[in-house]
Amino acid sequence: LPHGHVGPADAVRSAKPAVSQPAPDQRFPVVVLAASTGGPATVMQLAPGFTRDFPGAIIVVQHMPASFTSQYAVQLAEFTSIRVKEGEEGESLAPGTLYVCPGGRHLRVTPVGRIRLEGGGRINGYLPCMDVTMESVAAYAGAMAVAVVLTGMGNDGSQGAKAVKMAGGTVLAQDEASSVIFGMPAEAIKTGCVDQVLALEEIYPAIEKRVLRICRPVPAGVRS
């Protein structure tokens, strides 16, 4: 073939999509809301802030039995205009959608942004394990990851918070005064990876500010 000419085989090869990572312009923020004791009501108070044009995906991980999460997703949907559903095996994350991790399953996000649900036993003592979800979101979304550690007992989410921070993401924690149980936020704060400790009513505005900044970066030299 003449120099620079593309033959049929080359055209097929060049048209083949990459399968390892989505293109950078397909990336969007992924927010993980991690909660345990007192969490259902707390997340319901946050939910109205999220609307169907929210430019990121939200994953809610609650320490809940399998029999409760489907109904919980239905209840959450009554408080918000964003699309709410239980996460399903193999589905792709999409902006403007809030996914509830099914009870009794660990939820991971794959390198190409699909949900992977895993059964089996507890990890680090928890099922579902928030660390598992946060670590996978950190690997997938990097600086576009936002982890929010809400009210709850124990230390789940603290290792995941470290992973999100190391990936360049943002970590928020609920303050003691507005938490039913301050265990999980306190453990996350101890890691030194929490960017802001906030009252419940301050959390959604902080999420929105961070997500909008991710989607519309402030130009160099302009103070935000």
Q: Numbering strands along the chain, what is their spatial order in the largest sheet? A: 3-4-2-1-7-8-9
Q: What is the CA-CA span between the terminal residues?
A: 55 Å
**Could you state the CATH homologous superfamily?**
Methylesterase CheB, C-terminal domain
Q: Tell me the radius of gyration.
A: 19 Å
Q: What average pLDDT do the residues reach?
A: 89
Per DSSP, what share of the residues sits in E-state strands of 2 or more residues?
15-25%
Structural class: alpha/beta
H and E string: HEHEHEEEEHEHEHEH
Query: What top-tier CATH class fits best?
Result: Alpha Beta
Q: Count up the domains.
A: 1
**Main sheet properties:** 7 strands, parallel
Spans with pLDDT under 50 lasting ≥5 residues? 1-24
Q: Please tell me the CATH architecture by its name.
A: 3-Layer(aba) Sandwich
CATH topology: Rossmann fold
Q: What is the number of strand segments?
A: 9
**Helix content estimate:** 25-40%
Write the layout of secondary structure elements.
Layout: H1 8-15, E1 30-35, H2 39-46, E2 57-62, H3 66-77, E3 83-86, E4 97-100, E5 106-109, E6 115-118, H4 130-141, E7 145-149, H5 158-166, E8 170-174, H6 183-190, E9 196-198, H7 200-215
Parallel strand pairs: 1-2, 1-7, 2-4, 3-4, 7-8, 8-9
Antiparallel strand pairs: 5-6
